[in-house]
Specification:
Layout (H helix, E strand, L loop, with lengths): L31 E4 L12 H15 L4 H13 L1 H4 L8 H4 L6 H4 L4 H8 L5 E5 L4 H10 L8 E3 L14 H11 L7 E5 L2 H10 L2 E5 L11 E3 L5 H4 L8 H5 L1
Parallel strand pairs: 1-2, 1-4, 2-3, 4-5, 5-6
Helix pairs in contact: 1-2
């Protein structure tokens, strides 16, 4: 478990991330900010996590599991969704779980979030999710974030050997698809502690969207909402020297 680098209230912008080496590699190499989607771009109290758990329970019941085992199994599969979903892949969980969620009734356009992401000063913004492509695109459309990202790395449930967070291979896949080679040029925000840990292991700069940022010691930074990103990584919202002079 990594040592906590939680920044307490009152810290200066200059002190944020003082111990992190963010040396920019050759100019042809872009810096990429990877965004998780579910429970990161929208809050956990949206009700979607509970609905997803219900869909997973319904899936197990329909699959013939004993009723007494359903709650335990569904909870484990929900918590370890990216990894454990491999066991369900033959039954197309993207249609029975992700595809069955009434996202359009729950999620709505988030203009402040859109403005924040749009104003980021970074070469590439990339979505990185354990969900399927259709689910990811539905969420982005519901939140009004279409056109802000340069690409999407998702799980292809039709591929029985698909990789997903927190597997290291999934992070390397995201880097290949985003066109970045050096881990020092990768930045990441996710609500899952295990994913933030793996990102740090690989050499990315990680931000954990935590239930309690004071308690969490995952990632380099801990925040309660994605809207707090500019507080912990202010360099991506600072105007360039040229822009300031003009």
């Amino acid at each position: 478990m990594p040592t906590s680098t939680y920044i307490p209230n009152g810290a200066t912008a200059e002190s944020l991330g003082a111990g992190i080496d963010r040396t920019i590699t050759p100019n042809h190499e872009p810096r990429v900010f990877f965004f998780d989607i579910d429970n990161t771009l929208y809050p956990k109290d949206s009700g979607i996590p509970d609905l997803m758990r219900e869909k997973i329970e319904k899936y197990f019941e329909d699959a013939g599991f004993e009723r007494g085992d359903v709650q335990t199994l569904s909870y484990r599969y929900y918590i370890d969704y990216g990894l454990a979903i491999r066991g369900l892949v033959l039954h197309h969980p993207d249609k029975k779980v992700d595809g069955a969620l009434p996202l359009e009734e729950i999620l709505h356009e988030n203009i402040p979030l859109r403005d924040m992401i749009k104003s980021m000063n970074i070469e590439k913004k990339w979505l990185f999710t354990n969900a399927g492509k259709e689910h990811a695109e539905r969420v982005i459309k519901c939140l009004g974030l279409e056109g802000l990202f340069d690409g999407l790395t998702y799980c292809d449930y039709n591929d029985k050997a698909f990789t997903c967070k927190p597997d290291a291979d999934s992070f390397h896949k995201a880097m290949r698809e985003a066109g970045v080679v050096h881990p020092s040029n990768c930045y990441f925000v996710d609500d899952a502690a295990a994913n933030c840990d793996k990102a740090m292991d690989i050499g990315w700069t990680a931000v954990h969207v935590a239930d309690d940022p004071v308690v969490s010691n995952y990632g380099h930074f801990q925040i309660a909402s994605i809207m707090e990103l500019p507080k912990v990584l202010p360099e991506f919202w600072e105007k360039s020297k040229e822009a300031k002079e003009n």
